[in-house]
Structure formats: C-alpha cells, structure tokens
Task: inverse folding
C-alpha cells in the first residue's frame, strides 16, 4: 500500500513548513490556506479518518488535541480564538485519507462553516 501525502511529509519525502513535531504528531502549514493561519496537525500513525479510529487510538487522539491547542497558542491564536476542524469522508470535505486536524485562525471565522 502506498504512503499517504501526510506520511510522505512526515518522512521528509515531500517538503513542508513544519511548525511542531514530536514522537506522535507533526504540524505544518497548509499549502492552500483558508485563513491567515492554517496549519494541519497529523498523527504519525496512519489512521484514515476519525471514523476509523479505535479505542487503541485514544491516547494519540488526546495528544493530538492537546498539541493542536499548544500549536495554536504558539501561533498567537490563544487570545483571539481559533477553530479545529476534522473532515471525515467525501461529503465532509476530506481530501487526504489520513486523519488530520485543521487549525484555523487569524480572522473572524463565520458560522455555519459550510
């Protein structure tokens, strides 16, 4: 099975502007930003999407969420606010079949988002 785009970024086969990395997750700037700040945070373990995560992924998912908040703060979004988005499946806007969280901020974000 071939690697996903995000696995290739994590293994440095494809360049990306990395803003955070540890043993479980990698955060990097989105190439097509939808807000002044748009970073993706992905688990290094390949999980296709949130609907396919298992109870064994609980620690990784919790870590990902906590690190998303830390990355948002590091990027200056703590006071003004930010949005975390998980897309799941075609109708959910999923473009890469590798679980990832969008960190969006730097402007007022409308609601509903779709």
Result:
């Amino acid at each position: 099975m071939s690697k996903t785009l995000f696995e290739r970024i994590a293994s440095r086969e494809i360049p990306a502007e990395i803003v955070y990395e540890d043993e479980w997750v990698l955060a990097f700037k989105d190439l097509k930003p939808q807000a002044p700040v748009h970073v993706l945070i992905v688990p290094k373990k390949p999980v296709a999407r949130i609907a396919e995560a298992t109870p064994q992924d609980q620690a990784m998912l919790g870590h990902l969420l906590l690190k998303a908040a830390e990355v948002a703060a590091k990027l200056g979004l703590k006071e003004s606010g930010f949005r975390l988005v998980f897309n799941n499946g075609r109708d959910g806007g999923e473009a890469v079949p590798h679980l990832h969280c969008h960190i969006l901020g730097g402007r007022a974000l409308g609601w509903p988002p779709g």
Q: What stands out?
A: The CA atoms of residues 60 and 66 lie 10 Å apart.
